[in-house]
Every structure is written in structure tokens, then in C-alpha cells.
Amino acid sequence: QAVRLPQDAASRFASPPRLLRTIGACMRHAIAKGLLVLFANRREHVVATAEEHAGHNAALALSDACRLVSGAGADIPVFAEGLSSAGIADPNEVPAVVASLASACRLLASARSVASSPARSPGIEATPSGRPREQRRLAVDNDEEWFANEDNYFLPLVLLIVGGAFVVVFLFETFWLKSTLFATLRRICSRHAVKVRRRADGVMERISSRGKLAPDEVHLNATSEPGPAPFTSKDCERFWQELWQIVREEFYQGKALAVTDAREVVGFSRRNFAGLEEAGVAKVSLERGGKAEGRVVVRVRTVEDTSAGDFTAKASVDFHPLDVEVVFEPGEQHKVLSVSLVPTNNDWSPTRWFHLVASPVSGDAILGGPHIAAAHEQSRHVRVFILQDDIFPGRMPVDKFKSKHVDGWVLWYYVKSRIASRGSKFWYALAGYCYEPVHTVIVTPLTLRYTIDWAAHPSEGGSYSRIFMLAGVQAFSILLLRWGDVVQTRLRGRTGGVRMVHRRHLLSKLLLMEHTEQHEHLGSQWFYSALMNTELMVVKAYWQVFVLTQTAVGLFLVFVLIAIQATDSLTGFQVMGIVPAFGLIIAMACAGLEVSIRRGQAFKLLESRMDSETEWVSMFSWVAEHSRKLYNLCKPELAEITNRFNRSSKTFVSHHQKARDWTFDSTWVMKYVGEVAYCIILPWGAMRLLQSRLGLAQFTTGEFVVLTQVFLRFGRYMRRVSECMVSFQKGAVAILRVSELLRLPEQKTLLQYARRSLLADCPESEAGPSDEIVLSGVVFDVRSACRWGMGPLCDIRQRSDTELKIPLGKIVFVRGGTEAQRLTFVSLLAKVIQPTSGQVLVPPAEWPLLMPIASAAMPSSTVAEDFILNGATPEAAANLASILCLDPHMPHSKLPSGQAGLHALGRYLLQDPGIFIVVRPLSVLPQADRTKALLLLMAWCMGGGGHTLSMLLEREGLRDCGTSVGRSGRFAGSTPPRRTLVMAGEEIPSILPAGSICDVNLDEILEPSDHAETAEVESSVETPLNWAEVSAALEGNPVVRAQSEEERAALELVSELWVGAQHVRLA
Predict the structure, then answer these.
(1) How large is the average pLDDT for residues 911-919?
(2) What is the number of other CB atoms lying within 10 angstroms of the CB of residue 4?
(3) What is the number of alpha carbons within 13 Å of residue 321 lying toward its C-beta?
(4) CA dist 376 to 390, 610, 752, 873, 971, Å?
């Protein structure tokens, strides 16, 4: 109305196709101008021709637009004059499109010569009316369909749609999903902002640096108080001299260290306590030593061990915090505390622990008793273990493992435990994953059908708005599909929530099991379970719950869509439309029955496959672990390794092929159902479509397209159902193998103590005397302890008429017997193994620790780091490495055998055990280091243990440590108690006084074995081997005594070879 245009012209301008055509002409003009700008910067001689040609094209395009607006036959000047006569001078008075069009018309009216000179451009020809016309112009006739003329406005339409879609996706991905899809683009866009921010930060730093110290001044202040320097060579020499002087005064001259404080001692009764999570309580006992006169108050509180990693028990989650004052009245010597434990009521979890800390409050007493070695702590710390009796997976009853449907039961309990562990994250992820069938089964087919039969059908009132509306529905569903995919990817927890959780569980179980349980399964089985079985549990069990649920939703929606097709408002209710649904239900039931029949055999084949795969993995892991030691194997031995691997590999391949064929054939049961259903519905739908076109039925093209797509989806979902069934069987086998490992008992000794503590307030009172170790009727049978054997350990049996008592505070030497018998005996003393029958009573306040010949150390750690982890301060760790002539920054894996022995000795001494048991500690050391090692062991026996050793290394003098050494024992007295040192496989040094030695001869204690072993000859490095004694020992051994003529001849041949070897040695 403002432009005063004719009514028909206004209606044409207002229609969407005409408006798009006008915008397209303006965009082509803008593109032409942009190309002119690009060419003008390069070649000036092309400017005139290009500008002239582009001007004609723009004039013609705008002339068409003006004729479209003002009516047929209107000229550019006429329309321009009409705009001027209408009084339109300000472009703000009219819409933006009309204002731009008016401005363009005025500009072109001033250049009439360009528009009326067709001869200046070869691409222009004149019409009978004299108006220039392009030879290859665009059709804008009213009778031509607008969507068929793509050059007029299809380009701007596509650009608008693509640009809008890009903007929507960018905003959706960046601000809603916060994904990494446009991370590179965001990084490029934010580069300038980062530069500006850095400049601003630099300015702020310069401003804030005013008034601060200069860098040199800061460096001087930081180094004004340097820390203590590590021991030099003179300090190390002085350390050994003073240590030898103190040891000599203590051991040889009988001068006990001065004890200036003889007060009573209050402390925990043992170093480690335990409680059952199912019982909900852990009992902790405290003891008071001395005359028990007066009133003593001790504060006891719980503290989380934050350095324990996965073993950390959290307050208010695993236990209720405790902070109480324990009061000892006059005459009281025992107190029992109860720490409440919180039942987790979820899946299996590893053993956790927390600390109990005791500190004095009032009374004439000091802290003592067993504690965790920590050089920087003055209070007493003990551990409280939280043990579980839960069975993996998901507290599954034991009788279910004996059921013939054990694969189904383990899947059921495992899935329940995983869902409970994941919580709401599982359901959100499952909802996001299940939107995919909604999009593919419901949204996409229905959108396609209604686009064909409704939006683009003239008889049904089809229009452009319906088409764009359905396209918008499809686009919105795509955004929902993307959102659901992001939700399930981030919340499903396949790696961080399941896979690595199981691997941490296996690692925790392997670390906390006792020595006997360690031999139940090979190390390669643990490695295989952590690497392969956990992967199968996640992919073939946990994730298949998502896949099966999505498949079930898809199949349900297939039937829903068939029902929608049968009751559609476009064609009305059709009985024939629900016939496919009944056919699908019958086919699914038959296929499910067939798969269930084949399930049992498939489970057995999968178990055989896993067993054979474990064998070659075991062989390969052994080679990988010992690859750096393979240089000492000869070529036939290397060939034998490859032959063994090939045999195990061949066995695995045969089992794999059997399991593969059976499971693969099982999947084709469902595949046949899906494919046959599609082959049936294709001709059935085509015949109904033909009847509809003949007027015999009501069946549209859209319904046929939807029906075929639905059955294609049905076939796909049936294949996924069969694959899920096979995957569940593989996952069940993996779960069973992992459950065998996780059901092994851990901390068995503590578990027995926790059960006894529920029956008695003070189970320590039943442990026997507190000043000696008692062995009575001890029998150890390797086969009964472990069916696979226990390495070098052997069977031993104590004489029935002897009872061995080993006093504490002595240096005990275990001699006699064979090397295997000695190792078994000290393992019983250290509680590494439990006797098959009989009793080994060790005072609960004493913590035995066994140091084997070749001890393990932390992986990828240095010498100083190992010392710090075992209780030393950084200063003491550096000084201990210096006095042992070790590089504190050297990884322990690079240490030679002698230095590795010293390193292990320092680590074990810092742990401060009550009873230190060592196996041949001196024979593996060089001659120069044996004296140092023996001196350290003797100093440790003085009662200070690792705590005192750390204190000695942190002080310049050693004499002022006497009081601390005296207080390190369990109870105060006139003479500080010593630690107990047990040495096996070493001769008694002549330098030790007789009063500090206890000799244990196994030949007098143990019964002779049924299978006599070759007598061993004890020797040391400094004493050469006596070949005559060895020959005589071999000749007198009953094992080599000939029992037949053949054996006698073989013995004579061995004797001749032995004599020849002696001559070779003499030569």
C-alpha cells in the first residue's frame, strides 16, 4: 500500500517464490560485483569488459524483477519515476527488500545508456520492443513451476538452509552438548582473544610486581635456610665407627643403654586389626604395661589413610568416625573399643583399611606397643582392615554356581550389580541409546510416508508448509538422536565405570592374598583375566544389555508401526494390515526355541576355547617376562619354546574353530527369520499395491515404502538378537573365570582374627605366651595346602615328643635340614603359610616379616623412593643410601645382586618388624659388605628398629639416641627389649656373644622325610668347595645307592666321570 503498486503486483510480490526470485537476482548481482573486485586487483585490462558484461546481466535481472513487481511491460525508468512520484525518499519508510530494490532502480536509471546499448556486449540481443534480453536468460513465466527453476532462487534457498543448519548444529554442539566437533574452529576463533588475554595478564603482572622483591632477593631468601646436606664419605665412616662402638658396648661389655624414663606404657595390642563388614563392627584392643597404678587417659581417633589408593576406607562411607578418650582406671590393663562399620550393600569391593591414632591425654604413662613405622609421626598408628565375605558377582549364592544354568545366573547377578553400581547414569545412558530405534523405525518411515501421501499430494491438501514442517520434524529428530548418542557415550561407563573397575579389583585381590592362595592360579591366568576376560565382561555382557534393550524397543516399535499402518486415518482400518504382525511373532518364538536348545553346547565349546587360549598366553607372557634372560638358553632350548608355543597354538585354533562354527551357525537362525520375513512381505506388499492401483483395495505407495523399511529393520533386529545371545554366553564364561579369582580368600589370617573377635572381647589372650614363639605338633603338607604345589616349599613334620620354644629378643639361627625344609620352617614362623595341623603361636604384639633371598621391590622406583615408602624421611633415605654405598637416584632394577641385597635389607629394617626373618642374608653379599650388614642387623636388635635407624641417620651424633632406643620396645623397663632376628642358612659368627644366640637345629626337631633328599653341603664364599667331601657325601647317600645291575653300572659310569672332573679341576 505504501508503494501504491497494483493489487496483482502486490500479491505476486508477497508470494514466497517471487520473493525468493528477487532475492536470488540481488545475490547474483552481489556475486558478480565480488568477482569484479577480485579480478580488479590482478588484471586491469579485464575490468572494463567484465564490468560492462556484469552491468548488463544485473540490469536484465533487475529489469525482470521490476517487471514482476510493476506488471508486464514496465520499464526501469518508468518504475523509478513511479517510486519518486510516490514520495519515497527515505528507505526506512518501506520494507528492506523494496528499499533495496528502489535504490537499485535509481542507480540503473542513471545509467540508461548501459541498458539500451545491446551492441556493446556480444551476449545481449534486442527484442522487438527494443529491450535488451540475455541469450541464455532465466525463465520467470508464471505458468512454470517455481521448484523446477533452480537457477532463479534454488541457490539462495540451498545456501540459506545449509547456512542455517550449520549455525544450528554449531550452537547445538558447542553450547548444549559441549562436544569436540567444532573444537578446531573454536580454537581458531579464540586465538585472538587468547593473545589479548595474555597481553592483559602481562600488564597486570607488571603492575602487581611493584613493591615485590627482585628475583635475586627471592632466590637469596629461599636459600637462606638450606636443609641438611646428605652424608659425605667422612660422615659415613664416622657413622659406622660410632655404630660399632654402641653395638660393642651393648653386646660385649653388657652396658645397657640408659633409660631415664621408666613410666608405664600404653598402646595397641597388635599392629593390624580387622572387622567384618557384614557384622558392622571392628573390635580394637589396647593394653597397659607396668604396675597399672594411677589413672591414665588416652585419646583414640580414626583417620583415613589417603595414601592407600583403592584400599582407602572413607569416613562415613565405610566406617563411622570415632574420637573417644579411653580411661584406664587403677588396675586395668585391657580395654576394647568398637568401631562401627558401614555396610556397602553393593557389588564386591576389595579390602579397605583406615588408621587408628592414639595420643596421650593425662596420666603417668607413655605411648608404646606395636605401631606402623612412620619416622615423622610421634603418635601411634595401627591399621583396621574392613573385610568382606561377599561373593562375586553381586553376592551370588554358592549353590547357584553348581546349577546347570550357571551361565544364566552369573549374567543375572552380574548385570544387577553393574546397574546398582552405575545408578542413575545407567538409566540415562540406556534412555539415550534406545532413541535410535524411535528415529529409524517411527520417525523416518512415517515422515517419508506422510511426505509422499499427505504433504506432496494435491488431493490431500498438500502444501509447501507441510513439506517444510515434516522436514523440520526429521531435523529435530536428528538432533535428538545426536543428543541421545552423546548421553549414552558419556554415561555408559564401559571403560572407567566397568572395565578398569574390574581390573582394579583383580589387582587388589592379587596384592592382598596370602602366599598359599597365590599358588592357586598361575600368574598368566591373572594377566589373561585382567586383559581379556574383563574386556569380554564389558563388551559381551554389560554392553549387550544396552544392545538387547535397544533391540527389544526396536522390535516393539515394529509391531506398533504395523498397528499404525493397519488403523491409519488415511486408509481406514484394514484386517490384512495386522497379518504380518502375527507372522513375526510366530517366527520369533520358533527362533528363540532353537537358540535355547543350542545354548548348552555352545557354553562348553566356549569354555574349552578359553582354556586353550590361556595356555598360549601363559607361554607368551613367560617369554615376555624373561626376555632379558634368554641369552643363557641354547638354541635347542629356544627351539623347544617355539615348539611348545606352536602346540598350544594349534590346540587353541582347533577349539576356536569348533566354537566359532557352532556360535556362527546359531546366529543364522535369527538371520533366516529376518530375511525370510522380508522376502515374504516384499511380494505381498507389491500385490496389495497393484490391487490398490486397480481399485480393488486401499493401499498407498507410502504404506508400501514404510512396510518394506519396517521389515528390513525387523531383519536387522533379529540378527542383533542372535548376536546378543552368543555374546551373553561369551560374557558368562568370562564372568565365571573372573569370579574364580575374586572368590579366593584374602588376608586369611586377619579374617580368622575378625571372626574370633566377634566371639571374644580379647582374642589375643588365647594366643599363648607373650615372650616366646611356641611350635607344637606342626605338620605342613604341600598338596593339601595347594594342589599345584608351592614352589620350593616342601612337606615337614615336627617330632611328636618335642615342643619348640624360641625366646624373643635373641638372634636365632636356623640350621640343619635341607634348604627347602629351612625355607618352609621360617615361612611358618613368619605366618606366610599356615600349618596343616598343629600350632605355631606367635605373640600378637610381634609382627613377623620374612625377607627371602631374592626380594621384590617397587616397579619403576629409585633407591631413595623405596626407602621413603618404607617409613624413612627424605633425609634419612638419602643418608641410608650413602652409608650403604648406593646411588639414591638409581632404579633398583639396575642394581647388581650384591647392592640389591643391601637395598632390600635397608627396606625391611625400615619397616620395623617385631620379628625379622632373613634367609641367607650374608651369603649373597660381597665380602666387603657382610660386616656392614651384620652390624646393621645387630644394631636393629638393640630395640630401636626402623624408627631408631631413621633417627640415627637424621642426627649428627648417636649417643643421644639412647633414650629413644630404650622407649622403642613394647614396655619400659630397666633394660630395653631387643628385636628378634631369625637367620636361616647361615653359620653362627664367632664374634657374637653366646648369651644373645639361640640355635635351632631342624635335624633334631623334624622327622626324617619319607623321600630322602640329597644332603646339602653348607659353604660360604670365603671357604673353597671341598670336592672330596662332596664326593663322599654323594657316595654315601641312600638315593644313589644301586638297587639293580643297571643302576650299579650307571653309578660306576658316574663315578668315573666324577673322577675325571676332579682331574680336570686339578689341572
Answers:
(1) 88
(2) 12
(3) 6
(4) 37, 50, 32, 7, 21
